[in-house]
Amino acid sequence: MPVVWRFIDGKPGHERQTAGFIKALKETSPCTVVEVSAVGGKPYWSWLTKRYPKLEPLPDLIIGAGSACQAPMLAARRTHGGKTIYFMRPKFPVGCFDLCVIPKHDRPPKHEKIAETEG
After folding, report:
1. Residue 28 burial (CB < 10 Å; 0-12/13-18/19+)?
2. How far apart are CA 18 and CA 15, in angstroms?
3. What is the per-residue pLDDT across 69-110, written as a single tens digit (0 to 9) for each?
4. I need a surface site. Which of 4, 40, 60, 89 has the fewest CB within 10 A?
5. Can you spell out the DSSP letters for 71-114?
6. pTM assigned to the model
7. 30 falls in which pLDDT band (50, 70, 90)?
8. What is residue 52's predicted lDDT score, i.e. its pLDDT?
9. 49 three-class SS
């Protein structure tokens, strides 16, 4: 069963985006979801040292929305593996993520790692 680490930042709008994705994913395939707080910690240090805290089970997929989630998501992937899906226009280069899901109204650039959404 695939494992999804869902990074949350305490902002309801961001959490609704990833909750909707989890709901749709569970309708097509059973999965285990681990909620990970993106608040606090030292994500840049964790990324540099490849020492992100180990949570069980290890992720197959790492998702998040909101700027506070970006660095922790990338640090977790660097340390533990998995694919990253970020649900907003990132402040980091798009190429840092495996996929960015960006609303069309944000006018995302054309990129193979960007999926545009409407509504």
Report:
1. exposed
2. 5
3. 999 999 999 999 999 999 999 999 999 999 999 999 989 989
4. 40
5. HHHHHHHHHH--EEEE-S--SS-GGGSSEEEEEGGG-PPP-TTE
6. 0.92
7. very high
8. 86
9. helix
